[in-house]
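To: structure desk
From: M.T.
Subject: fold request, one chain
Message: Could you run this one when you get a chance? Sequence is below, nothing fancy, just the single chain.
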Amino acid sequence: MEEFVNNVITFIYSLGLTGGIISVFLIFVEAFIPMLPLIAFVTVNIVIFGTALGFVLSSIATIVGGSVVFMLSRTFLKEKVLNYVDKHPKLKIIKSLKNGLDKISLSGLSLIIASPFTPSFVINVGGGLSNMSFLKYIFSMLIGKFCMIYFIVFIGTNIVEVFHNPIAIIKILIAFLFAYILSIIANKITKKYI
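Reply: Done. Structure tokens follow.
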């Protein structure tokens, strides 16, 4: 994986600013095609644009991409998929996912989104199929994705080293705690709207 990431970085970096724009666009596309290596594209953005701007551009691209998937799922898939699931009881896992997302709190959803190991495509499509409000979804995305991109920026591509470095683990835990606290504050502020 590390060699692949280095090859991607080298190729896109060789394109200059155009490569950076392509990388930001690929982060957006990753919301639709979850097999794309998000870590590689975020790393490219950090290399090309610097830590701060690369972080912001990567976060915006993944939030916008996820929101588009959410809205497309809600608009074009929700009714069809739920009707199909009702007729085929073997697909009850989809109904369980929908019911779970209907009941999840803003802070719980933010923490799930913040984890770089959560398949965001499932959350985006599942959120679109659920009855959660877009406001709840977008607040969770803002909090969770910023934390997740920070996690990716911080660990880079070598996750094994992180688990041997106690300070890195503490910083990651602080990021998750920060996401949790932000989600509780957002939940209190938006309670009457969500």
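Reply (cont.): DSSP finds ten helices and no strands in the chain. Let me know if you need anything else for the meeting.
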